Structure formats: C-alpha cells, structure tokens
Amino acid sequence: MPSSADDALSLALDAALDRVVDGVRALDAPAPLVVIDGRSGSGKTTLAARLRDAWPFSGAPRVVALDDFYPGWGGLAAATAITADDVLAPLAGGRTGAFRRWDWVESVPDERVEIAPGAPLIIEGAGALSPRAAELADLTVWVDAPEQARRTRALERDGDAYAPHWEEWAAQERAHIALHHPAALASLVIRLP
C-alpha cells in the first residue's frame, strides 16, 4: 500500500510534468533539446521518463541519461563537459552528437553512441545543466528535493552499489552547483517532496 509520502511525490510529479509539458509546448523548436538536472534522487529520471511518455508532439523524444556516460564515480564534471560539447553543441548545429558509453562493471569506456540531429531529445542527469548547455538547449529544468528524501530514494533505487559512493557523489554535485549555478540557469525549477 502506498504511503502518504508516495502519494505526495506522485502528485508533485504530476504537477511538475504539467509545467514541463507546457514549457515544451511553448517552444518554437521543431526538435526541442530539453536538459533536466538535479541532485541524485531528486526525481529527474522519473520526470524525464514521464515527459517522454507525455510528449505533446508527434515523435516521442529520445532520453539520454548521463548515467550512461559518467566516466566512473568521479566523473560528474567530465559528463557536464560531454553533455555540452559532444552532445548538445553538435545537435544545435545540425550535426550528430555522440558520447562513449561507460562500462560500470569493467570501469572503462565502451561503445560510441551517436545521436542524430533533427529529433527531439531529453538529456537528464546530475551535472547536465551548465552555462554552455543552457545556451544550447531549448528548455532547461532543475529538479530539487530535500536531502533525506533524495538519499532515501537513491539508495532504495541503487542499493548497495551506490551507498559507498554517496558522499563522493554529493561532493561533486555541490561543486557543480557552486561552479555552474544550475537552478539559476533553469527555465523551470521543480521542487519535489
């Protein structure tokens, strides 16, 4: 049976989705580039999936998660650069964007993944929104939630694989926020319980 916290989160996500869908509808872009950033466990992955499923135009967008290309547990800053320089900049210029998938088991780069221009795209992940990404994206979203709720959700989702890295990752998130001020760059700021 869902708890009242689950119900509150679901209702907040519904309201957030409505705001983001309205933001996409208001764009004058044939293939919008949407960037969703937020700290671990904030709800950005769930929001991105819901946005894909509720996309207001024909042709559902592709969702790319920074989890696919963080170069390891210390790779948040590198993924920020990859997002802007290797994915968004080429796409905004009508060229193919790309990244190298990260093999989390072997801790090495894996295959190259290409993203064709001219189709809608949602990029989500901690570190996705920087000043350069904000210049290139059509809609930017910052998702925030209280630390304890974020931690609980993240550890329930990823369990023992993530627990030893929580503090290291949180420090990288704090550095990203201090350097790039993603909430101030966002078209929309979403606060979830």
Quick recap of the structure?
With 193 residues, the protein is an alpha/beta fold. Helices cover 45% and strands 20% of the residues. The protein has one domain: Rossmann fold, CATH 3.40.50.300.
Key structural traits:
single chain, 193 residues, alpha/beta, Rossmann fold, five-stranded parallel beta sheet, two-stranded antiparallel ribbon, 7 helices, 7 strands
* Record field, number of beta strands: 7
Q: What is the alpha-carbon Rg in Å?
A: 16 Å
Largest sheet: 5 strands, parallel
**How many distinct helices?**
7
Range of strand content = 15-25%
Structure description:
- The model has no long low-confidence stretch (mean pLDDT 95).
- The protein has one domain (4-66, 119-191): Rossmann fold (3-Layer(aba) Sandwich).
- The radius of gyration is 16 Å and the shape is globular.
- Strand 3 and strand 4 form a beta hairpin.
- A 5-stranded parallel β-sheet has the order 2-5-1-6-7, with helices on both faces.
- It has 193 residues and is an alpha/beta fold.
- It is built from 7 helices and 7 strands, in the order H-E-H-E-H-E-E-E-H-E-H-H-H-E.
Question: Could you give the topology of this structure?
Answer:
Layout: H1 4-25, E1 33-38, H2 44-53, E2 62-65, H3 76-92, E3 97-103, E4 108-115, E5 121-124, H4 131-136, E6 139-144, H5 147-158, H6 166-180, H7 182-185, E7 188-191
Parallel strand pairs: 1-5, 1-6, 2-5, 6-7
Antiparallel strand pairs: 3-4
